[in-house]
Amino acid sequence: MSASRAMRPHPFTVSRRAILAGGTVSALAVLAACSSNSASQETSPAASGGASTGSGSAKSLPKSTVVPTELDSGLGSGQADGVFPRTVVHYQGETTINAAPTKVVVISTGQADAMLTLGMCPIGSTTASGAEGPVSQYLKDAYPDQVSAIEAITKVGSRNEPDIEAIGALKPDLILTNIAGKDDADTLHKNLTAIAPTVVMRGTGQFWKTDFLLLADALGKREAAQSLLDTLKKEAAEAGSALSSAGTVSLLRKNSDKLRIFGPISFAGSVVADMGLQRPDTQQFTNGVSNELSSETLDQADGDWLFYGIQGDKDEELTGQALWGSLKAVSAGHAVKVDDDPFFLNAGPTAARVVRDQIVKAVRG
Q1: Which of 256, 309, 324, 360 is the most exposed place for a label (fewest CB within 10 A)?
Q2: Which residues form the Fe/B12 periplasmic-binding domain (predicted)?
Q3: pLDDT: is 130 or 48 the higher one?
Q4: Rounded distance between C-alpha atoms, residue 335 and residue 302, angstroms
């Protein structure tokens, strides 16, 4: 089937509008049962007896690094939860959704996480690079009662190359995507809107909170999403307050030949910030979510605690590097391998809870 044959008319409107793209649990409640067809990211001074120095030292974050928590002016629908029709202004125009969606396809990072957090399951999802399936294991672990529905989600291509034909075959009543990492976002948007109403988020970990609000708005659940974010931030602050002597927290990821540290505006970095924990001087950068390292600069990944993820490689490709054993976190037994998916691949509320809980578990012992 060609992409054009997969297209079908829908009673919705999409008008192009100039949108400013500039950005300004132990108990995370699930709001509704999920079904496949229903709406319904070196030791601490106290422990080591000395102060951290060099790459393990820290400073206060400038306010400009705060991950946005409110939608840019003009975005969203302005409607109360559950009210349809609603016209949602997003990053590629505006879309009118006539009724509460029940068959949703998600294209981009963290959107399956966001839907499951809100008590809904997508019927289709793309797959992240290197992932075996469209939905990560951490989501199955977080929602064990919904494993059957999650495993029934249809794969519709990759995040960078969605399968338009497969999406059309599912006959969705809503498609969710973002503008990040798309070679031709306009053409993709045109193809998707010919299949079903499509709402476009901004993408990247820096904007995960506002993307969650915009996604929830399209589902008629923005107020519920705001409440969840408020609860999540409160729980993060409470968890972090119990770790005040933890020192600096470093975030590192090894993926193929890429070695990166993650700053305060990355997804995992934002969770660490919400916990009120400190970051090493080398991870205070604000010109991107991550900085690439080489084997010779691996010392920039040091901190009192080092949380690292590895995708598609043997652990030895990181832990066998020459500088690995010289890191203070490694020497102190504070280098912790974490689940790569929630820390570095999926930016959503449930992933944020997993990141928080893994940090707490490691530091508390």
Answers
A1: 256
A2: 103-365
A3: 130
A4: 9
